[in-house]
Amino acid sequence: MKCLICKHGETHPGLAVVTLQRDERTLVIKGVPAEICENCGEYYLSDEVAERLYAQAEQSLQRGAEVEIGHFAMSGA
């Protein structure tokens, strides 16, 4: 698909690094499947991946993480 941000690049499947922040807490999650713009690097997540990503992030925050770097969990567990 055409990138909605730069309007020039096409997106291709790849793995993104996603940074999420809530209040003073920061989570960096590597290896997130996404469509990534070849021109500007903007990434787009499917609804399923976004749902899993947010669930994983919520688990980290519930454990009390203030700063965490991890990998995307492909399964629900």
Characterization of the model:
It is a single chain. By secondary structure, the protein is α+β, with helices and mostly antiparallel strands. The chain has one domain (11-71): Roll (Ubiquitin-like (UB roll)), CATH 3.10.20. The chain contains one helix and four strands. Strands 1, 2, 3 and 4 form a four-stranded mixed beta sheet that branches. β2 (25-37) and β3 (43-44) form a beta hairpin. It is elongated, with a radius of gyration of 13 Å. The mean pLDDT is 94.
Please tag this protein with its features:
77 residues; single chain; alpha+beta; elongated; Ubiquitin-like (UB roll)
Oligomer: single chain
The topology string of helices and strands comes to: EEEHE
The coarse overall form would be elongated
What is the CA–CA distance across the termini?
31 Å
Strand content: 35-45%
Structural class from helices and strands? alpha+beta
Radius of gyration: 13 Å
CATH architectural designation: Roll
Helix tally? Answer: 1
- How many runs of DSSP E, i.e. beta strands? 4
CATH class annotation: Alpha Beta
Helix content: 10-25%
User: What integer is the average pLDDT?
Assistant: 94
Main beta-sheet strand count, sense and barrel state:
4 strands, mixed
Q: And the CATH topology?
A: Ubiquitin-like (UB roll)
Number of domains: 1
Uncertain runs with pLDDT below 50, 5 residues or more?
none
